[in-house]
Amino acid sequence: MITLLRRFGRTALTFFERLGRGTIFFGYVLAGIPALVSRPGLVVAQMWSVGVRSLIITVVSGVFVGMVLGLQGYNTLVDFGAEESLGVLVALSLVRELGPVVAGLLFAGRAGSALTAEIGLMKATEQLDGMEMMAVDPLRRVVAPRFIAGVISMPLLAAMFSAVGVFGGYFVGVGLLGVDEGAFWSQMQSAVDLNDDILNGVVKSVAFGVVITWIAVFEGYDALPTSEGVSAATTRTVVHSSLAVLGLDFVLTALMFN
Amino acid sequence: MYSKTVEIGVGLFVALGLAALLMLAMKVSNLAELTAPDGYHVTARFENIGSLKVRAPVTMAGVRMGRVTDIRFDDNSYEAVVRFSVDPRYVRIPIDTSASIFTAGLLGEQYIGLDAGGDEAFLTDGGEITLTQSAIVLEQVIGQFLYNKAAEGG
């Protein structure tokens, strides 16, 4: 009984310790951002590996998610004779929820894991220590550009996901199932609001971008400098950031669309 | 400093992302309508507006002419004051036009339907429509029907 309690307490203590270290780390990363203004090339290089190389998987998933929404939505709506509302259904579910969330999950799996593994390996091979020896702050030189690149890339990826998803739904609904094209777009335009839906979706994706990239760079920087440590950190990044995206999505939705 | 491919790729990526955002704003949302010229405003008083909402369409002969911009309650006459904007293209709406609140389809949203009158004078900005017909509230209709039935039977 005591052992159980003690184990429970230890888990809680470790959790809070990591949370605290993560927050302090976050502060240091934020402090390292202003220095990037003089070296934007660092961010560009990271956006290549974080953003551009996540583009294909995001766009392809977006098309398929939109197409599935079109098919499923049509099957339900046609029972009520409301298949013209398909555009509204596809656009609202993509812009409000699926775009930011699914793009976030893909981003965590594709870019977050790579960030953790890269920084973790740098630590394991003592490159970070080497930098410190040369009076180069690894937080500014390595972590901050990756963080900014992730925060910029994530909303762009989510927007592309939603945009191609709408066209996927359009392709299935109008192209294959014969929904009226004019009704598809006009009902969508009258139902989707720029502030309430699109901007809130963008705010969500920025929040997810911050959280995912923060978890990814922190796990990498905090990893045990061994091969097991790096692999465990990479797994933790994917698990924790996926859970964080889903949990945060609920909170943000409750705040925005109550 | 960095290879050309990387820079071009990142540039393309950012451009595509912004284009997607722009497309969402222009094509998917109502931005085009928000930026359209507002037109002139007309008010109408209803005894009961049912579940009419701000931004509901205003139509004449089934053609959308504008949208509801504001709904207020007048605590002197206990009526709802509905203000709506009309597209500036439609300036020839007679002053004795009547406004009714209809429902689109069985479960659809409510909208304002205008029926043109015969007057020579036309509505202008700040004008008011005096001939109005309230929304049909289903409970009232059923209540009326039952009352009539009971009266017939008795």
Question: What does this 3D model show about the protein?
Answer:
The complex is a heterodimer of chains A (258) and B (154). Chain A has 258 residues and is mainly alpha-helical. Chain A is 85% helix and 0% strand. Chain A is built from 9 helices and no strands. In chain A, α3 (55-77) runs parallel beside α6. Chain A starts with a helix and ends with a helix. Chain B has 154 residues and is an alpha/beta fold. Helices cover 30% and strands 32% of the residues of chain B. Chain B has an 8-stranded mixed beta sheet, with no helix packed on it. In chain B, a hairpin with a 4-residue loop joins β3 (63-74) and β4. The model of chain B has no long low-confidence stretch (mean pLDDT 84). Classes of the chains: A mainly alpha (258), B alpha/beta (154).
Question: Which structural class do you get from the secondary structure elements of chain B?
Answer: alpha/beta
Spatial gap, N to C terminus of chain B: 96 Å
Quote the average pLDDT of chain A. 90
- Run of helices and strands of chain A: HHHHHHHHH
Summary of the model, kept short:
The complex is a heterodimer of chains A (258) and B (154). By secondary structure, chain A is mainly alpha-helical. Chain A has helices at 2-32, 40-50, 55-77, 86-124, 127-133, 138-176, 181-191, 194-222, 227-256.
